[in-house]
Design goal:
single chain, mainly alpha, two-stranded antiparallel ribbon, 14 helices
């Protein structure tokens, strides 16, 4: 009698642990079965086939389409960024350096302004030095072979990163259908406690990509700095020609960008080409839903290297922001989840050059996909210069 009672308790404990109340089902928008059923030969998710599932075959079959949609989104972002990088190289590498060369004609004037009024001259000198530094960084993009090598290297590393992230996402979909979810790190609020090896997988796959993308930030910064460079050159030129300060304030500038594709992508704090724990808490949220915008634009801090200018002062870097806060743990009380144990089986196809940016000098990109932003930016430059010159003319009158 006692043995029978003990067996009954064990069976009850096993049965109670297997249920379809997995919060991930609602978070991911999957229809749940009322109770677990034998999985049998489900279309995907090897982790389910020897046990039970809380999802119908139709739901599981839909995982392929979901992954394809995420892949398409990532590749659209990546392709747009590739095009934009090619445009920046074509449109700003030489023009920015030429404008800095014009500014260097007034070296002595910058020093004279500092001597005359340090509160005015020091910020000008600081910005002047930063422009010269950026010009030297742009020299790297002169050599087409070096640029092409860096560009292709970045694209290839992006494929590795995307494949890893998509495999993790597919495995998370499979986890949502697992009746044993309570023993696999899924919390009642839908957060997932993942094994430490998951963070290792993310870092090893994506840290090299972010590091490779970071090399192109000078192109983005040249575009962002160009308006201030033109305005400050004209400001100092007026002083050179008239020996007085122009009665004009260069208003604070912000980067002329309209979306994440047009912003810098920087290495997060304490990251290098090999490791980046920041990616473990920011590429996925606590329920392992991929942040497609962050991943698609370089898997780093979007805007972390953007330049902006106060009315008077040095170039400022937009503060890096982080999101999330999930910590990957190896010893939770309810078990851990490891996507490597899943084998989702979903087909993942990531191409290295989704927009066929074959001419990395920028001519193909400019012919096929000129962004309206560039025309708008040129108009902004012309308007800014006209406004500054109008002020100068008014002073002279």
């Amino acid at each position: 009698m006692k043995l029978t009672f003990a067996i009954a308790l064990v069976l009850f404990a096993v049965a109670s642990a297997q249920n379809c109340n997995n919060p991930l089902l609602e978070i991911y928008g999957f229809d749940a079965l009322a109770n677990p059923v034998a999985a049998g030969n489900v279309p995907f998710c090897d982790n389910l086939r020897d046990g039970e599932t809380c999802c119908s075959n139709t739901t599981i079959l839909g995982f392929q389409g979901l992954i394809e949609n995420i892949t398409a989104s990532l590749q659209e972002l990546a392709g747009s960024r590739d095009i934009y990088i090619a445009q920046l190289r074509s449109n700003y590498t030489d023009s920015f350096r030429d404008q800095v060369s014009d500014f260097t004609d007034y070296d002595g004037d910058v020093n004279d302004i500092q001597d005359a009024d340090a509160t005015v001259g020091d910020p000008i000198k600081t910005q002047y030095d930063s422009f010269r530094q950026l010009r030297s960084e742009l020299d790297h993009f002169d050599n087409s072979d070096d640029y092409k090598s860096d560009f292709i290297d970045m694209q290839n590393k992006r494929v590795i990163c995307y494949n890893a992230l998509l495999n993790i996402q597919a495995a998370a979909f499979c986890l949502a259908c697992d009746p044993n979810w309570e023993n696999l790190g899924v919390q009642a609020n839908g957060s997932i406690t993942a094994a430490a090896s998951v963070c290792d997988t993310i870092q090893s796959a994506c840290a090299p990509f972010t590091d490779a993308m970071d090399k192109f930030n000078p192109l983005f910064q040249a575009q962002q700095a160009f308006t201030r460079l033109v305005g400050l050159t004209d400001w100092v030129k007026f002083y050179h020609d008239n020996d007085i300060f122009p009665n004009a304030t260069l208003s604070g500038d912000v980067p002329v960008v309209t979306n994440a594709t047009q912003r810098t992508n920087s290495q997060p704090p304490n990251c290098d080409e090999d490791t980046c724990t920041w990616q473990c808490t920011n590429l996925f949220n606590s329920s392992f839903q991929l942040n497609q915008t962050v991943a698609g634009n370089g898997a780093g801090v979007i805007g972390g290297g953007d330049v902006a200018y106060p009315d008077v002062g040095v170039i400022q870097t937009v503060p890096s922001t982080t999101s999330g806060g999930r910590r990957l743990q190896s010893t939770p009380t309810t078990g851990t989840w490891n996507p490597a144990d899943t084998n989702a089986g979903v087909e993942i196809v990531v191409v290295s050059d989704p927009r066929a940016v074959t001419n990395l000098d920028g001519s193909d990109a400019s012919d096929a996909d000129i962004d309206d932003h560039l025309d708008a930016f040129r108009t902004t430059i012309i308007t800014a210069v006209v406004a500054v010159l109008s002020v100068f003319a008014a002073i002279l009158i």
